[in-house]
Design brief:
The complex is a heterodimer of chains A (about 180) and B (about 160). Chain A starts with a strand and ends in a 15-residue tail after the last helix. Chain A has one domain: Response regulator (Rossmann fold), CATH 3.40.50.2300. Chain A is built from seven helices and five strands, in the order E-H-E-H-E-H-E-H-E-H-H-H. Chain B is about 45% helix and about 15% strand. Classes of the chains: A alpha/beta (about 180), B alpha/beta (about 160).
């Protein structure tokens, strides 16, 4: 099962750039997009059209969004016992210190500001992939309880899932990883 | 200005390896060490011998430690309005799913299991340095001290 990333972003241009950058750095990522905060919460709570939405392994959250802004989305995620352990990375054009501070106060897992230039943005997506989706240990256990009906993702695959995905697909261009997990 | 990193780790060997790896990765990092959870909280709250301790830009926290374990330290950091904004990275030998899930529930910023091999450990410290101390935007200490949680949005609006 591929790693699931939810991008909460209203800018069509940024959505497109994010998709293209992920396609380049790790084609095994499954990217879903919510275009505003209300849609993001419906996706995460599997409401309405999102009844069968997969639980994301990582959320990339813009701050300035229509309908419900990213600060509210972040607060709702981090107050919800079933959602709070999904790593939520703020990815925004804002560099305001107050936004950085407020995001960490609301328990954002980290804060990244979007670079202006395409190459730098591409590099940032690669950093996110290499760090959050490759090196970091992501929580797995909850997925078993909340997997889609019929998905039958057994618990025994839990701790190996992200590694399996990587080694199955991108080991060739992942020079830094060097198979360190194989030590265990 | 140096970057202040607090390492909370009871294993002298791992402390030494982490110091050496940071020396190699970023000479601008000042590494401080607390050897158990009680020591860590005293450092963060500037108590006793730590009256003049700097506020860490990043905390690396082991889970299994004497006196007060890393889960308790994490819970205290993330429930304290003046400390919760310090990015706190779990760095532990544990690979147990329960530890990973519990850490994220307690609002750990991220979780790493320590690699066994030396080169891999050095690589991990470099990864942490490159991401947290170079790529990520960290909260600004002066603002953290000056701005109350409720009014964190207002300074931008007042300008």
């Amino acid at each position: 099962m591929p790693l699931q990333v939810l991008v909460v972003e209203d800018s069509r241009g940024d959505i497109r750039l994010t998709r293209e950058a992920f396609r380049d750095v790790n084609p095994f990522i499954h990217l879903e997009v919510a275009h505003d905060g209300v849609e993001a919460m419906a996706f995460l709570r599997r409401q309405g059209a999102h009844l069968h939405a997969a639980r994301p392994d990582l959320i990339l959250l813009d701050l300035n969004l229509p309908k419900m802004d990213g600060r509210q989305v972040l607060a709702l995620i981090k107050e919800d016992d079933s959602l709070k352990n999904i790593p939520t990375v703020i990815l925004t054009s804002s560099e305001a210190e107050a936004d950085v501070l407020k995001s960490y106060q609301l328990q954002a897992n980290c804060y990244l500001s979007k670079p202006m230039h395409f190459e730098a943005f591409h590099g940032l997506v690669k950093s996110i992939n290499d760090f959050w989706l490759t090196k970091v240990r992501l929580p797995e256990n909850d997925k078993g309880d909340e997997a889609e009906p019929g998905a039958q993702s057994g618990h025994e695959q839990g701790p190996k899932k992200s590694r399996g995905t990587k080694s199955g697909g991108t080991r060739g261009n992942d020079e830094n990883d060097g198979g360190r997990r194989n030590a265990h | 200005m140096p970057l202040e990193v607090l390492l909370v780790e009871d294993s002298p060997g791992d402390v030494r390896l982490t110091k050496e790896a940071f020396n190699a990765a970023n000479s601008n990092v000042r590494l401080h060490v607390a050897t158990d959870g009680v020591d860590a909280m005293a450092f963060l709250k500037r108590e006793g011998v730590y009256a003049d301790a700097p506020r860490p830009d990043l905390t690396l926290l082991d889970l299994n430690m004497p006196r007060m374990d890393g889960r308790q330290v994490l819970a205290r950091i993330k429930n304290d309005d003046s400390l919760k904004t310090i990015p706190t990275v779990i760095l532990t030998t544990s690979t147990a799913d329960d530890d990973i899930v519990t850490s994220y529930r307690l609002h750990a910023n991220c979780y790493f299991s320590k690699p066994v091999q030396l080169e891999e450990f050095e690589g991990l410290v470099k990864t942490i340095n490159d991401f947290w101390l170079t790529t990520a935007k960290l909260p600004h200490e002066a603002l953290t001290a000056a701005v109350l949680p409720e009014s964190a949005k207002s300074p931008a609006e007042q300008v």
